[in-house]
Design brief:
The complex is a heterodimer of chains A (117) and B (143). Chain A is α/β, with parallel strands linked by helices. Chain A is 35% helix and 29% strand. In chain A, helix 1 (31-38) runs parallel beside helix 2. The chains are: A alpha/beta (117), B alpha+beta (143).
Chain lengths: 117, 143
């Protein structure tokens, strides 16, 4: 069976903030790709980061582990991290895991940018 | 009890997608709604990842997945022939801790327990059988 398209990761910069969009599926196979993609971030240029999960359909504990590791890294560098675009099962998984109390979670990019200023 | 689908795969992460897709397709055919299917996919992924990571320290082994229909339940049995491990006997992680205190990992088994209606483990000979049951009716599980 052919493997379905799994995860897409796109980064851009806006108002001095790094915005990382993640779509598709974050599972045990694709989460390491996310880790690799985010490993380039050092906090030297854009200190604050937004993870835009709009279009992320699925996240398992492996994906959450990557989010948690990224969150710890940003915090250690005195940066700020905000997560936007949570919907459907991914939102439920975040709630269930207690991630709403760990991360700043906003509805929109504008709201997240304002919060980080 | 009616067998709906059955698949045997080598216990390697590259087979995760196929294992999860097989269960999801069978569950959809049986009319489980998309939310239940998503949560079942998550539970199956966690179980399969555990098997691929821990069950066969020597690195070689298979796992079976069987989907069954039984008394208003959609049952997924995930079977491996490696080290015995009863996931129903592990403690839940503390999901109230802050960012700095939270451990990486430990959520997988918690998810299995949260995302399906019933979880059971049994060992039969050399087989470790994890049984995940989801109600097929309209009664919703509150998570």
């Amino acid at each position: 069976m052919a493997r379905e398209v799994t995860m897409e990761m796109m980064t851009r910069k806006e108002a001095g903030i790094l915005i990382v969009g993640v779509k598709g599926k974050m599972d045990a196979v694709t989460a390491p790709e996310f880790d690799k993609g985010f490993s380039a971030w050092t906090g030297q240029e854009e200190k604050s980061v937004i993870f835009d999960l709009t279009g992320l359909e699925y996240i398992s504990s492996a994906g959450l582990r990557s989010m948690l590791a990224a969150g710890k890294k940003v915090k250690a560098a005195d940066g700020r991290l905000c997560i936007i675009g949570l919907e459907g099962p991914v939102k439920e998984v975040f709630k269930l895991s207690g991630f709403y109390s760990i991360f700043d979670i906003c509805e929109t990019e504008t709201e997240a940018i304002q919060k980080m200023r | 009890m009616k067998l709906l689908s059955e698949i045997r795969l080598p216990a390697r992460l590259e087979n995760l997608q196929e294992a999860v897709s097989t269960v999801a397709a069978t569950a959809r055919e049986k009319g489980l709604n998309s939310e239940k299917v998503s949560f079942l996919e998550l539970a199956v992924e966690e179980a399969v990842v555990n098997i691929c990571t821990y069950s066969y320290p020597a690195g070689v082994g298979d796992f079976d997945i069987r989907c069954l229909e039984e008394d208003g339940m959609f049952v997924t049995e995930i079977i491996n022939y490696g080290l015995p491990f009863d996931i129903t006997a592990t403690p839940d992680p503390d999901v109230t801790k802050g960012l700095e205190e939270r451990r990486l990992g430990g959520l997988g088994i918690f998810f299995i327990r949260k995302f399906v209606d019933e979880v059971a483990y049994r060992r039969e000979g050399s087989a470790n059988i994890l049984r995940l049951s989801v109600r097929t009716g309209h009664a919703e599980k509150t998570i």
